[in-house]
Amino acid sequence: MEKQTRFPYQFFVVTFAWSWLIWLPLVLIGIGIFPQGKDLLALSAPVSILAAFGPAAGAFYCLRTVQGKDALRQYLRGLLDFRFGWRAWLIPVFVFGGSTWLAWILPELWGEPRLEMLLPSGWVFLPYLLIMILVGGGQEELGWRGYILDPLEERLGAWLGNLVLGVVWAFWHLPLFFIPGTSQTFMPFAGFVLLTIGYSWFYAWVRQASEKRTLAGLVAHGWSNAFVPLFPTVVMVEGAAQSRYWIWVSLTFVIGLVTMVIRSRKTR
């Protein structure tokens, strides 16, 4: 992506406005202002998917208005580039698969019962992965790493830029913590901030390893989300201790930290 002469603050305005306004009716249901009708709850999944395109909306708006009319067309053409290199293709699979599995299985060593897989069958994992890449979280990378990361790193540097982005990303998710039926309602928010910072550092490495091919970020994000129901780390019970969750977010944070150290040394 070309360097920009001014920082695109509009990205954050459009991203948060799009997502939070779409999530707002579900939040109002969750806090009891709107009645919790069956029809409204049935719409929660498609509404949440639409809201999750906020970062993409922010990126597309800025590409069109800040960088000129041809920038969006060039950006979209670049999404079809699959030449990530083997590291960007394979390392996220082993990193996210291994860390999520470890967080899922470790508590059994001190007597905690196993959490059953949330997918109906292991055979649906690959179709589920595709859904996660396209509409289950992967699409967020069209904005977070695919657009705003480069301006943030240019202004703040790799370490601080990704730290800021990780915190902003966590707060962008905040409405989900008040929407009935989401896994976030059972997650301590402080742990979620650790998770998004760790992801932010690791996804930044994926972007560098793939020579800034945005599709690599979508695929890596899809893998991270797809492993969660395969190896569940969140107990869907209010007040549960969530030991798996804390292991999971801590591992993700440490992995991101190590990745950034390696990246920094290579850069020097």
Describe the structure.
The chain has 268 residues and is mainly alpha-helical. The chain has a domain at 83-267. The radius of gyration is 18 Å and the shape is globular. It has helices spanning 10-30, 38-42, 44-51, 54-65, 71-78, 86-105, 125-134, 144-156, 158-172, 189-209, 214-230, 243-267.
Quick structural overview:
The protein has about 270 residues and is mostly helical.
Relevant terms:
268 residues; globular; 12 helices
Question: Level of helix content?
Answer: 55-70%
Main β-sheet description:
none
| Overall 3D shape | globular
Distance between the termini: 22 Å
Name the helix and strand elements from N-terminus to C-terminus, one letter apiece.
Answer: HHHHHHHHHHHH
Cα-based radius of gyration, to the nearest Å:
18 Å
Continuous helix count: 12
Point out poorly predicted stretches: none
Strand content: under 5%
Keywords: Hydrolase, Membrane, Metalloprotease, Protease, Transmembrane, Transmembrane helix
Pfam families: Rce1-like
Organism: Candidatus Desulfolinea nitratireducens
GO molecular function, one term: metallopeptidase activity
Task: Detail the topology: elements first, then pairings.
Blueprint: H1 10-30, H2 38-42, H3 44-51, H4 54-65, H5 71-78, H6 86-105, H7 125-134, H8 144-156, H9 158-172, H10 189-209, H11 214-230, H12 243-267
